[in-house]
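Allow me, if you will, to draw on your knowledge of protein folds for a short while. I have a record of one protein: its chain in single-letter code and its fold written as discrete structure tokens. Kindly check, if you would, that the fold set down in the tokens agrees with what the sequence suggests. Thank you for your consideration; the sequence and its tokens are set out here:
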Amino acid sequence: MTKSILLFFLSFTIFSCSVPNMVVVELESKNSSETNGFIVFVEKDSKVTMKAQIKGLNPGEHAIHIHEKSDCSSADGSSAGGHWNPTLEAHGKWGDSTGFHRGDIGNFTVDNEGNGAVTFTTDLWCLNCDDISKNILGKSIIIHEGFDDFKSQPSGAAGSRIACGGIIEENSLID
């Protein structure tokens, strides 16, 4: 199914005469949850935009983070490692002057039907560039059961990992 989504985005972007770097991530349920969805990362003009559509969640706020490994093989998502933190900062809210992990995306709201969406753009990420403090290829995206308190170290006390997806070259269109 991921390949068909890649083809959809490819055909969509061909008409603009330039194909941006792109990775499509399919989320796998973890910890016996029903959470699933897709996340698309598109790099254009030195910025990466993440667009996520997530289903099967409890209503309310949930945390979303980039983690250090693309390994989603464990049932509880722990194989993905901790938050991606190449600059060795304290955990915090994105953009906080006291520090934040490059993987600290934040929280998003889920409606009463269990659906959530996130759109996030930054120039602190890239797809397959040489800067290891920016390159998110080879990492994973994690959806947490709870919300990030932006204070607890090192992870924000966001609860169980209920979905995981690898940000991997296999699912990418990289120029």
Notes: Strands lie at 21-29, 36-44, 47-55, 60-67, 104-110, 116-122, 139-144, 161-167, 172-173. The chain has one domain: 2-173. The domain at 2-173 is CATH 2.60.40.200 (Immunoglobulin-like). The CA atoms of residues 63 and 107 lie 4 Å apart.
